[in-house]
Design goal:
- The chain is α/β, with parallel strands linked by helices and about 350 residues long.
- It is built from twelve helices and twelve strands.
- The chain folds into two domains: about 70 residues, no CATH class; about 270 residues, Rossmann fold (3-Layer(aba) Sandwich), CATH 3.40.50.
- α4 packs across α6.
- The protein is globular and about 55 Å long.
Length: about 350
């Protein structure tokens, strides 16, 4: 939720208005957050004594002029992500960054033929509050081969957790600023095809963005590439062909298809699933698209691999759970390791 900052009228994000309770989480407006400071109401200029004290430097966080955590009340800026990239380069000496890999829910990525450093906590890289989520480690691993490095995110950020769009794509911005030319992302999805068995793999050929946001809004659309990047071929055709071959060699039932991105974190309704099917979607998830948009703006080639972890709502006569998403990820671990090893070997020669 947003409210007007009492002092200067700028939008301010309230992180406590959001919460998560399972892998795709739960997103809701929290009226209690609006009442957390007596007298302050969302969208109004009503002040309380607490607000006045805050303005006079007497509030709980006088340094930032807010009752809320410093990192979540000051928005990330293009300059701050550039500073993060400079700090990362100086501290970890990554050498030539070839690409970024992102692990989806319940998935872990290894890069055969490359040597892994100790995982880096993301709290050492980004200056914003982290939210824990089952199936996603808040770490980044540098996989090295000679003077080359692949960055591997051992989890990702989601809009439904309360992250801002610029925070969701911060790892992509970081990698791009460090020189990465390729993004290979994985995710766990719901299948929109009743004939597609759980554990099947979809190499994404296009997407439908129904998340209601875009990471290029504002300064971000002006600072890292064209403000109106072409998305005609967001998913690189050459990389898709390599991924299809690697997937089949790894033993996956693989096909290409359209990924539908929903905000989440509640699973979709049967009516929503029928709509997505009519729109031409093959799988549905709650991530990835912001990363793809940011990567394409920065000129990175993109490949996305979607593990169809469960049938979508209305295609089976049972409730959907995050646990089955995690279970399918574990079952596919060895095949995924083989696929990634083969694909990385062909892409990063």
């Amino acid at each position: 939720m947003r409210e007007k900052n009492i002092k200067d009228g700028t939008p301010r994000w309230r992180p406590e208005a959001f919460s998560t309770d399972h892998g795709r989480g739960v997103l809701f407006a929290a009226a209690a957050a609006a009442a957390a400071v007596p007298g302050r109401w969302i969208g109004t200029g009503i002040e309380s004594d607490a607000d006045k004290g805050e303005e006079e430097g007497e509030g709980p966080d006088a340094d930032t002029g807010s009752c809320y955590p410093h990192a979540m009340t000051e928005r990330m800026t293009p300059d701050s992500i550039r500073a993060a990239a400079d700090g990362f380069r100086e501290r970890y000496r990554p050498g030539l960054i070839r690409g970024l890999l992102v692990a989806g829910s319940g998935l872990s990525l290894e890069v055969p033929g490359w040597e892994a450093d100790e995982p880096v906590p993301l709290t050492e890289v980004f200056d914003f509050e982290m939210h824990e989520l089952v199936g996603h480690n808040q770490t980044l691993t540098l996989w090295r081969r000679g003077g080359e490095t692949l960055l591997v995110m051992n989890g990702r950020f989601h809009l439904y957790q309360g992250y801002r769009p610029e925070e969701v794509v911060a790892p992509v911005r970081l990698a791009g600023l460090l020189g990465a030319k390729v993004l290979i992302a994985t995710n766990a999805t719901g299948s929109l095809d009743p004939e597609m068995a759980p554990g099947s793999l979809v190499v994404v050929s296009d997407h439908i963005n129904l998340q209601g946001s875009n990471p290029l809004v504002g300064d971000w659309g002006r600072d890292f590439g064209p403000p109106f990047p072409d998305m005609s071929e967001a998913y690189d055709s050459e990389l898709r062909a390599l991924a299809m071959g690697a997937a089949r060699e790894a033993g996956f039932d693989a096909r290409e298809g359209v990924y539908c991105a929903m905000l989440g974190p509640s699973f979709e309704t049967p009516a929503e699933i029928r709509m997505l099917m009519a729109m031409g979607g093959l799988v549905v998830g709650m991530s990835t698209v912001p990363e793809v948009i940011a990567a394409r703006q920065m000129g990175m080639r993109v490949c996305v691999l979607s593990l169809a972890a469960n049938p979508a709502a209305g295609l089976v006569d049972r409730e959907l759970t995050h646990e089955e998403v995690m279970d399918e990820g574990k079952k596919a671990a060895e095949k995924l390791r083989s696929l990634i090893g083969d694909l990385v070997g062909k892409v990063f020669i």
